[in-house]
From TrEMBL:
Gene3D superfamilies: 3.60.21.10. This is Metallophosphoesterase. It comes from the Bacteria. InterPro entries: Calcineurin-like_PHP (IPR004843), Metallo-depent_PP-like (IPR029052), Metallophosphoesterase_sf (IPR051158). Keywords: Hydrolase, Membrane, Metal-binding, Transmembrane, Transmembrane helix. It comes from Streptomyces smyrnaeus. Coiled coil: none annotated. The lineage of its organism: Bacteria, Bacillati, Actinomycetota, Actinomycetes, Kitasatosporales. Residues 172-340 form the Calcineurin-like phosphoesterase domain.
Length: 404
């Protein structure tokens, strides 16, 4: 009885902090907007600037309007009503205030430095920093919007896989991911992305999920150009977490209709000159809690029947799946999800959840992970210090390299 009681007490001791953390997490959606709007309001308007009263009142009213309007627009846009115009307003306000908040905080030391240097008087220094923050924010938002809406640059990378046979040396794999077709109509952008992909003469084209925000029925027109993508061997797709917010099976069915092969815990073989590459895919890890019958990430099922001596290319939406991949001796995992942080310095928060932010990384003795910064953008139509990409990975065999 004593041992059982001790275990029960230990369990309760562990659960108590976890319960408090969960309760705290519930308040974040309420606390975050207040901080995002109140901090820059205070720094820019109420810390010694001594603006004329109408300026102070109008500025404060605008911040208050943003504080109230942004959450309301987000709820109407992304809640049950799914109103695209409201989503555009809410997302744009979110991205804008994030940049404004960041630079309001970052430029506070500038004001201290000017004070130490004895430059100007207190009011002059305060106003100078306010205008500096507003100027930097305006430039970054304009640039970030252009970066988000442009056709991504092609990033080319040679990746050597020690187990890849010489017959498959030079295999061209194009990765697109996180297209996030959404409230802003990007049908023309989608067509131009697909045109760019078709110039790369890919053997294999992969989409590692988060096709859209919204159901396949609502975003069909934006996704339709994916049907024009060309590959000499295969076009393959795996689900992302956003599919599970938007009737994932509908997206699986649409991609199948467009000629893509959904790799839902299964694999196909890429063969050339007597050598074989196993191309496998798994559902996103969020599928396991989605409640959708038949959806879940099952790596063992994806590899069932494959020759263990053949190299494996795995598609998995989130980089965090790399732990399972490395345990199974996967050679290369392709992922997206992180967007490279999308709006700096959000990448610091992404790193709390994911083992990699962007680029090629090694995990364990054999496994490589390539994390794309994404082809589109989620929510706020901005990319700041996190450019989008279309990735061309050229697979290299050490055997071919030795012979040449």
């Amino acid at each position: 009885m004593t041992e059982t009681s001790d275990r029960s007490a230990d369990s309760e001791a562990h659960e108590a902090p976890r319960s408090r953390l969960h309760r705290l997490m519930r308040y974040i959606p309420m606390i975050a907007p207040v901080l995002l709007w109140a901090v820059p309001c205070w720094i820019l308007l109420h810390t010694g600037q001594h603006w004329p009263l109408p300026v102070t009142l109008i500025g404060t009213a605008l911040f208050a309007l943003g504080l109230v309007g942004m959450p309301l627009a987000m709820v109407r846009g992304h809640g049950r009503r799914q109103q695209d115009q409201a989503a555009i307003v809410g997302d744009t306000l979110l991205g804008s205030v994030w940049v404004l908040f960041t630079w309001s905080v970052l430029l506070v030391p500038l004001r201290l430095a000017l004070t130490v240097a004895g430059v100007g008087d207190g009011q002059g220094r305060a106003r100078f920093v306010t205008w500096a923050v507003l100027g930097v924010t305006a430039v970054l938002l304009a640039w970030g919007y252009a970066e988000a809406r442009r056709v991504p640059r092609v990033r080319r990378l040679d990746v050597q896989l020690p187990r890849l046979g010489a017959g498959l040396d030079g295999t061209r794999v194009v990765l697109i991911t996180d297209t996030h077709y959404g409230p802003l109509d990007r049908a023309r952008w989608s067509a131009r992305v697909c045109e760019t992909v078709n110039t790369l003469e890919a053997d294999l084209v992969c989409h590692t999920g988060d096709i859209a925000d919204g159901t396949a029925e609502r975003r069909r027109a934006q996704a339709a150009p994916l049907g024009t993508v060309q590959a000499t061997r295969a076009r393959v797709y795996v689900t992302g977490n956003h599919e599970y917010y938007s009737e994932a099976q509908g997206w699986v069915d649409l991609m199948d209709e467009l000629g893509w092969e959904p790799l839902r815990n299964r694999h196909l073989l890429l063969e050339r000159d007597g050598d074989t590459l196993v191309v496998a895919g798994v559902d996103d890890v969020t599928a396991e809690s989605s409640g959708l019958a038949g959806h879940g990430a099952h790596l063992a099922g994806a590899l069932h029947g494959a020759d263990p001596d053949d190299p494996v290319l795995l598609l998995a939406h989130q980089p965090k799946f790399i732990d399972r991949a490395a345990a199974h001796g996967i050679d290369l995992q392709l992922s997206g999800h992180t967007h490279g942080g999308q709006i700096w310095p959000f990448h610091h928060l992404v790193r709390l959840d994911q083992p990699a932010l962007a680029g090629l990384s090694r995990h364990g003795t054999r496994t490589l992970l390539y994390t794309s910064r994404g082809t589109g953008f989620w929510g706020p139509p901005f990319r700041v210090f996190a450019p989008s990409e279309i990735t061309l990975l050229v697979l290299r065999s050490p055997l071919r390299s030795t012979s040449s």
